[in-house]
Amino acid sequence: MSASDAAQGATPGGDNLLELAMLGKTALALAVVVGIILLCSYALRRLNAGRGQAGRHLKVVASAAVGQKERVVVVQVEETWLVLGVGGGQVNALHHLPAPSEPPEPPAADGGGFATRLASALRQGKARSGDDGASS
């Protein structure tokens, strides 16, 4: 076996070593990028935690759609209710009035919601299919 044959035999082993080194570098770079993303998300969560306390004086009492992009919103700011028209990138004050001493009652659930009606229809369908099977 000559020296050139030995050099050619060592080349595949060297290529494997280079490939492993490149794979390791790629994995390290990926780990660094994932670490930076996690660090940024943690930092944003910490920064936004302080913002939630500033919204305690502002509360949306009610909202109603007037058009596709337009809404009328009632907002409580301390002891005042503001009726705002929101739409088209603009907010317009329509009216302001003192907030009532007692909070407004939420609308009563009439049981006519989609989920309730679907559940009752499924129950009725099962009852009908059970009756048909019993009569045969």
Structural class by sheet pairing and helices? alpha+beta
Q: Please describe the biggest sheet, giving its number of strands, its sense, and whether it closes into a barrel.
A: 4 strands, antiparallel
Q: For the terminal residues, how far apart are their CA atoms?
A: 91 Å
Beta content comes to: 15-25%
Q: Please state the average pLDDT score.
A: 79
Instruction: Please mark out the parts with pLDDT under 50 across 5 or more consecutive residues, or reply none.
Output: none
Secondary structure: number of strands: 4
Strand adjacency order, main sheet:
1-2-3-4
Helix proportion: 40-55%
Oligomer: single chain
* Radius of gyration over C-alpha positions, nearest whole angstrom: 33 Å
Q: What is the element string, with H for helices and E for strands?
A: HHEEEEH
Give the overall shape, derived from the CA principal axes. Answer: flat
Number of helices: 3
Itemize the secondary structure elements and their pairings.
Layout: H1 3-49, H2 51-54, E1 58-65, E2 71-77, E3 80-87, E4 90-98, H3 114-135
Antiparallel strand pairs: 1-2, 2-3, 3-4
Give structural notes.
By secondary structure, this protein is an alpha+beta fold. It contains three helices and four strands; from the N terminus they run H-H-E-E-E-E-H. The protein has helices spanning 3-49, 51-54, 114-135, and strands at residues 58-65, 71-77, 80-87, 90-98. It has a four-stranded antiparallel sheet, with no helix packed on it. The termini are far apart. The model has no long low-confidence stretch (mean pLDDT 79).
